[in-house]
Amino acid sequence: xxxxxxxSRDVVTVARALxxxxxxxxxxxxxxxxxxxxxxxxxxxxxxxxxxxxxxxMFGPPGRAYVYRSYGIHWCLNFVCGVPxxxxxxxxxxxxxEVGLSTMRARRGAVADRLLCAGPGRLCQALAVTGAHxxxxxxxAPFEIIWADEPVRLVVDRRIGITKAAEAPLRFGLAGSGxxxxxxxxxxxxxxLTSRQK
Length: 198
Fold this sequence. Notes:
This protein is an alpha+beta fold and 198 residues long. It is built from 3 helices and 9 strands. The protein has helices spanning 11-17, 101-108, 120-127, and strands at residues 22-25, 28-38, 65-70, 74-81, 88-99, 143-146, 154-157, 171-174, 188-189. Strands 1, 2, 3, 4, 5, 6, 7, 8 and 9 form a 9-stranded antiparallel β-sheet that branches. Strand 1 (22-25) and strand 2 (28-38) form a beta hairpin. It starts with 10 loop residues before the first helix and ends in a 9-residue tail after the last strand.
C-alpha cells in the first residue's frame, strides 16, 4: 500500500471518507452508510492491549481487511488504516444493499431488504465475509471499493455495543439513510466530504 493510499491516513478521516463509497465483495455489496473508528489509544479497540495472534492484522499494512468473530457468533469486517504498527481500523457497520440482492437475500433468509446489511454481523453474512478474508488486500479481488465522487453529508454519534470509551463520537453515518444499523441520536451534522478527501 503506497503512502498516498486512501487508507494511509488517520482512522477518523478514513471512517468519514468511507461513507458513500461502494463496497463489493466478489461482486456483491452496495454503498457504505455507517462506520466506526478504532485506534491504538482507544480502550474499546482490539489493539489497545497490544499485538496478539487475534489482532495481528490491525498492526500490519493499511488497506487490508481485518476480520474477527464477535462473541464467537458473527464475523465483523474492518479496514486497516494509518501506518504499519499503528493498530487502527474502521469497522464497516452497515451498507445500503444494491448489487447482488438475490444473493444477499439467499444468504440472509427472509428479512426486509433494509436489514440485509444493517449491522456488522448481518453485513458479513450478506457478503459472505469470514475469517478467510482476514489480512487480504482491499485493492484486490474479492474486494472492490469505489470511492464516492459526489458530496455526502454525515451524522456523528457514539459507538454501539461497547462499554469502554462508549461516549466517544466515533460512529459515522450517511444522513437520511434508511439502512443504518441503529438511528443516530446526536444528529451532529459534519462538513461535506468529497472525493478529493478520499
